[in-house]
Amino acid sequence: xxxxxxxxxxAEAEGKTGMGPLDIGRVMAALPHRYPLLLVDRVEDLILDxxxxxxxxxxxxxxxxxxxxxxxxxxxxxxxxxAMAQAAGILAVESLGLAGSGKLVYxxxxxxxxxxxxxxxxxxxxxxxxxxxxxxxVCKFAGRALVxxxxxxxxxxxxxIADPPKA
Length: 167
Description:
This protein is α+β, with helices and mostly antiparallel strands. The protein has one domain (18-162): Hotdog Thioesterase (Thiol Ester Dehydrase, Chain A), CATH 3.10.129. It contains 3 helices and 7 strands; from the N terminus they run αβαββαββββ. Mean pLDDT is 89; it is low at 1-14. It is an enzyme of class 4 (lyase). One of its GO terms (molecular function) is (3R)-hydroxyacyl-[acyl-carrier-protein] dehydratase activity. Involved in unsaturated fatty acids biosynthesis. Catalyzes the dehydration of short chain beta-hydroxyacyl-ACPs and long chain saturated and unsaturated beta-hydroxyacyl-ACPs. Belongs to the thioester dehydratase family. FabZ subfamily.
């Protein structure tokens, strides 16, 4: 897995530009997702062309907890991966200067997804995602999700930058 780089580390030494925090308004400007499928609440740190650290506040009010699982609510693994992918989408949009362009970041592939611990309501899910490969139309990422500093999930994934479908 690729090392996740945060502000104040090697990225700054290389002259890469750090941003953050980004509030929900800026998150919504970068992503087309809306409730109940918007899974990034805040960006703590974003280093253009390198990495992002974002937060998802996992609340008991989430719709998926009604059925997954009654009596033992656990965030579905697929939604943890989706949250990492949305963080990657913000990283791509900001790094490639796509804000306001109408371009979308589409999920293409997930590799090596591993789920280490269940994610329960009432936690802050920390999403750390880094570019593995960046091209104009296809990007590869390495992501991990943590709760209280403990790894709960990780995955590598690929996304495509494209125009939205025609109506």
